[in-house]
Amino acid sequence: MVPVSYYLMLSGILFACGVVGFLIKRNIITIFMSIELMLNGVNLSFVAFAAHWQKLSGQVFVFFVMVVAAAEAAVGLAIIIAVFRTRETLNVDQVNLLKL
Amino acid sequence: MLHLVLFLVFGAICVAGAINLLAQTHPISSALSLVVVMASLAVEYLLLGAEFVAAVQVIVYAGAVMVLFVFVIMLLNAGAEERTKGSHVALVLGVPGVLAGGLLVAWTLLKRSDTGMVALGSLPGYPKTIGWLLFHEFLLPFEVTSILVLIAIMGAVVLANRPDVLPPPETKEN
């Protein structure tokens, strides 16, 4: 038997790691991976609460979050490719203009 | 007891992978750390009984999405990250804010002792039951999600399309 709060703490730690990575990383791909880390942390809390309330809706929601994350990864990586094609850099500090 | 040991071992692997993601400077190392995080999260899902979610986590996340990431890193020939002193505000305000938020969440969760315990695999999420829910109770969100994925496919194709691959527009030369 494990308390649900342990799972929620692990989920919170993962989410906090994702936020820190989003703030301190300068590579646009690593920033994108930090967002995936945050989504994974939230998914864990969904599954933990599903087990807590004995309702399967939480696990179905994890499925939806995964679909949205996959779509987001496809579009986001396409945007990264487009940015790299015009700027020749992946450093977000050098991508500070909307227009070339 | 077995549940607690497995939770602690794979939770430690998970957190170590997440911290390694932040510590590495090369994107490919960060991507491999993220694979470790996702694989150990799949074990945590299995401990909670979410078998279908664990399988999808490995197949979709650790498989498809991470292959996409690694493919883009290789395609763009991404080198090691350049450390710049770009966003000073993020370091000064963001990191303590995140730590304070995390401590607040942990303190609240530990103080509330009535969150209950979960047994090993207490809520089995078999593919059959998940599929039944998906096609009865959540049918409308499921269909809306399919439209979202369709739009995402079109958006990815349009965005990644090279403008000079398209035939050049007709220019009138007088």
Structure explained in plain terms:
The complex is a heterodimer of chains A (100) and B (174). With 100 residues, chain A is an all-alpha fold. Chain A has a single domain, classed as Helix Hairpins, CATH 1.10.287. In chain A, 78% of the residues lie in helices and 2% in strands. Chain A is elongated and about 55 Å long. Chain B has 174 residues and is mostly helical. Among the domains of chain B are: 79 residues, NADH-ubiquinone/plastoquinone oxidoreductase chain 6, subunit NuoJ (Four Helix Bundle (Hemerythrin (Met), subunit A), Up-down Bundle), CATH 1.20.120.1200; 37 residues. In chain B, helix 1 runs antiparallel to helix 2 and helix 2 runs antiparallel to helix 3. The radius of gyration of chain B is 22 Å and the shape is extended. The chains are: A mainly alpha (100), B mainly alpha (174). Chains A and B meet through strand 1, helix 1, helix 2 and helix 3 of A and helix 1, helix 2, helix 3, helix 4 and strand 1 of B. Strand 1 of chain A pairs antiparallel with strand 1 of chain B, so a sheet runs across the interface.
